[in-house]
């Protein structure tokens, strides 16, 4: 039975409740929902062509908003959601997010128009934004400090596992039952997380008092990112001229500058810019933006290549892509253990170079004739190794020196930056290879930009310092 919380503090849980909830049980309950959030994205990359067939009157740029509307809202709401979790209770916000995510998933599957599907995806993004930072905060609170580097890397590897199972599972389900099942597949596992979360998770809160949501900042961030993505996706559209594209890009850039200025002056900023006074934290977030863009381009581009150039069926493409993401999980676990001793920098820099090598391989080696083992699999394994080293390490480095009261907000900012990168990655990929009748040369700028972004990630991470006993925020 719970004891009443002290004034200004988070809810207190009895010793019996704490004893019956082990750290690893807490980890898996919180991670299942994050698995679904990651699974949902990779399945939709695979299902993009099925969506195009399901809504034949839509354009690739229009359909990209099934992905990008979700990602823009998700990115913008992660930060206030982290603050809500720190203030009102991580269990409460987590469970509310899971419930909304499941209801919205059902609505997405029932959509009969692109407009309603985009609306349902926005609701799904709200749920995902609520549960994601709360999940990581719940996990961090459950473990002692010396184990957090390992645990954060495993938590990040859960997303890698979703990426591994998402293409194979998603493409089989979508091919057999249609695109709505890209969303219905979330329901059983989500219900498990919701049920056991209600029964077993203990409530924790930062105890920092109620926080006001920075609505002007939230709207500026959403519109700025959305306008920039719109300018990119419409750059090849015959219905948009240079003036319209320039105006969209200018609005996005102007609002982004206004957002930063507003955060410096408002009393209740969406993002506390003091977090970025720490050099490692600011550098990690710039690297996350570059890597998040490259990661989205990679996944989306791989499906486009295998179905558009090699003419693989959707299920076969999903199975063919699986070995790369499967590499992410073991590599992330080993990397997390080593990062706890040596810091994240060696793995961030080394993994970025490996990831750049994967992009260079895909740029130069695969041709128009299928040759999976010789021409595709080596690049796929390189990419899985690079992602396993970099992606969880970015999450771990971002929170390595944050005080406990800022776990949710600090991790939410990092996750939001990654999602903004994903918006840009999807936008670039739609421009390069999102159209029907794609040819091999269309992939040259895609994989070339992939290499540039991976190298940029590595260069930025040279400044990261998370060695034990290093700097503190």
Features:
single chain; 473 residues; mainly alpha; Growth Hormone, Chain: A; 2 domains; 17 helices; 0% strand; disordered N terminus
What features would you describe in this structure?
- This protein is 76% helix and 0% strand.
- Helix 6 packs antiparallel against helix 13 (323-342) and helix 9 (215-233) packs antiparallel against helix 10.
- Residues 1-20 have low confidence and may be disordered.
- It folds into two domains: 15-213 and 270-463, MFS general substrate transporter like domains (Growth Hormone, Chain: A, Up-down Bundle), CATH 1.20.1250.20; 214-269.
- The protein is globular and about 50 Å long.
- It is built from 17 helices and no strands.
- With 473 residues, it is mainly alpha-helical.
Can I get a quick summary?
With 473 residues, this protein is mainly alpha-helical. It has helices at 15-20, 23-54, 60-88, 90-109, 114-142, 148-177, 181-184, 186-200, 215-233, 242-265, 279-308, 314-321, 323-342, 345-364, 372-399, 407-433, 443-460. The two termini are 36 Å apart.
Quick one: overall form? globular
Radius of gyration: 21 Å
The total strand number stands at 0
| Succession of helices and strands | HHHHHHHHHHHHHHHHH
The share of residues in helices is: over 70%
Class inferred from helices and paired strands: mainly alpha
CATH homologous superfamily assignment of the largest domain: MFS general substrate transporter like domains
Q: Sheet with the most strands?
A: none
Number of spatially distinct domains: 2
Give the low-pLDDT segments: 1-20
Mind telling me the CATH class of the largest domain? Mainly Alpha
Head-to-tail CA distance between termini:
36 Å
| Overall pLDDT confidence | 83
**CATH architecture title of the largest domain:** Up-down Bundle
Number of helices: 17
The fraction of residues assigned to DSSP E strands is under 5%
What do we call the CATH topology of the largest domain? Answer: Growth Hormone, Chain: A
